[in-house]
């Protein structure tokens, strides 16, 4: 193999060729890539080119007008930042716009939208996802039926909703189960003492909603026909379908908003069964034990955690983290961050984590009687962060080499990006 590399790179010293071959674990193609990368000449960027890379969203004309050749790079950056801050809208106005967006997509009142907006870091899309995923239809129907037989909703419950803004409603004619009837008054009286959970329900139906499997099947057909929409959580789809009373147009509007803002991962709140999971997909007795044991394990893990909710930015980045911990946390944040890890640790971690992730997907497929396809449908894709150069040879990360080799050898389907891999599934071996 070293002879082959000598023929391709006659000007390279034998020691360099041997080092590249060792780093590639004997793979001549990978060794060639390392050597080719090492031969690429480095270029020095001017300050104006650096400013363009620092502010990719700022028009070139604006950067050119603000650039001062007598300033240092830091001074130019500071000058541009001051200019952008002075011309940007106020924080109050941004918050107001976000509240309006939440109200537009969900129909809740301002104070309710503001509450969820602050709980989600002023991110309107995350607030919308949180509202829909928090909705408890079964609890509401049981509570109202027990306290007020024959009555569907109370004043305090309906008070969280605004009158629907018809300028934003499009698509089919609204049925008696739709948004157009959400604010019709009823002759309902409220009890002096309302249950707190009842008053915080996220969707109020004028009539008991009856799940329509034919309409839901139409929604699934549309979702399956779009590669981007397939990445949205199936449980979130079901929650949205019932939240909007079977209005497919509104479900698609929310899903498109989620995809456009790259928030698909946040539609997977946990591995617990969603509010409608049992209602829409009954589990037969032969599978029930396996499925319930999975739920109990997940619940126990959540309750034993010091903090119930983790920051979305948290990743598996501690070199002292055990393989078992990484495997468990993989389903919570969807990331493996190999910053600080040595190349010889990478393979063991991947062997412990990725098979469990794929087994989770196969379990969900078994429960839904759907075993086809190599891309994940029921769990979120996994992001493996390799970095750009730590423990590198010729500018190519050794960790990155190990990750790519593992993914190839084990037939995983992935998307390669400059400093990370997005694992999207696994080729099914026949």
TrEMBL record:
User: What InterPro entries does this protein's entry cite?
Assistant: CUE, Endo/PolyKinase_Domain-Protein, Smr_dom, Smr_dom_sf
Signal sequence region: none
Which branch of life, at top level?
Eukaryota
The record's GO molecular-function terms, alphabetically, read: endonuclease activity; ubiquitin binding
TM segments? none
Domain CUE residue range list: 1-40
Q: Cite the Smr domain residue spans from the record.
A: 336-426
Q: Which GO terms describe its cellular component?
A: nucleus
UniProt name for this protein: Smr domain-containing protein
Q: Which organism is it from?
A: Henningerozyma blattae (strain ATCC 34711 / CBS 6284 / DSM 70876 / NBRC 10599 / NRRL Y-10934 / UCD 77-7) (Yeast)
């Amino acid at each position: 193999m070293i002879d082959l590399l000598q023929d391709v790179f006659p000007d390279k010293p034998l020691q360099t060729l041997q080092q590249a071959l060792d780093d590639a674990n004997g793979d001549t193609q990978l060794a060639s890539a390392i050597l080719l990368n090492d031969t690429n000449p480095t270029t020095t960027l001017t300050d104006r080119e650096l400013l363009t890379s620092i502010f990719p969203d700022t028009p070139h004309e604006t950067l050119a007008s603000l650039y001062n050749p007598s300033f240092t790079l830091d001074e130019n950056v500071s000058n541009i930042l001051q200019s952008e801050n002075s011309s940007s809208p106020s924080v109050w106005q941004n918050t107001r716009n976000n509240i309006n967006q939440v109200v537009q997509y969900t129909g809740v009142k301002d104070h309710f939208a503001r509450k969820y907006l602050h709980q989600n870091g002023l991110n309107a899309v995350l607030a919308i996802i949180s509202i829909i995923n928090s909705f408890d239809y079964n609890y509401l129907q049981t509570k109202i039926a027990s306290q007020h037989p024959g009555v569907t909703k109370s004043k305090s419950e309906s008070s969280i909703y605004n009158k629907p803004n018809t300028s934003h409603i499009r698509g089919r004619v609204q049925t008696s189960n739709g948004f157009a009837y959400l604010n019709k008054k009823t002759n309902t009286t409220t009890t002096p003492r309302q249950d707190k959970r009842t008053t915080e329900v996220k969707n109020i139906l004028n009539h008991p909603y009856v799940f329509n499997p034919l309409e839901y099947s139409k929604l699934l057909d549309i979702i399956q026909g779009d590669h981007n929409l397939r990445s949205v959580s199936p449980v979130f789809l079901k929650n949205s379908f019932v939240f909007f009373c079977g209005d497919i147009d509104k479900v698609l509007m929310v899903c498109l908003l989620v995809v456009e803002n790259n928030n698909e991962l946040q539609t997977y709140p946990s591995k617990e069964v969603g509010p409608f999971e049992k209602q829409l997909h009954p589990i037969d007795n032969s599978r029930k034990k396996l499925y319930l044991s999975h739920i109990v394990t997940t619940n126990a893990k959540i309750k034993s955690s010091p903090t119930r909710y983790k920051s979305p930015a948290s990743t598996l980045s501690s070199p002292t983290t055990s393989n078992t911990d990484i495997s468990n946390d993989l389903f919570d944040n969807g990331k493996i961050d190999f910053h600080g890890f040595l190349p010889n640790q990478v393979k063991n971690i991947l062997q412990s984590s990725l098979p469990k992730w794929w087994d989770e997907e196969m379990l969900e497929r078994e429960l839904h009687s759907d075993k086809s396809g190599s891309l994940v449908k029921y769990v979120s894709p996994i992001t493996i962060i390799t970095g750009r150069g730590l423990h590198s040879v010729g500018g190519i990360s050794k960790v990155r080499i190990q990750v790519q080799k593992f993914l190839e050898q084990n037939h995983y389907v992935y998307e390669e990006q400059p400093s990370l891999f997005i694992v999207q599934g696994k080729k099914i071996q026949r």
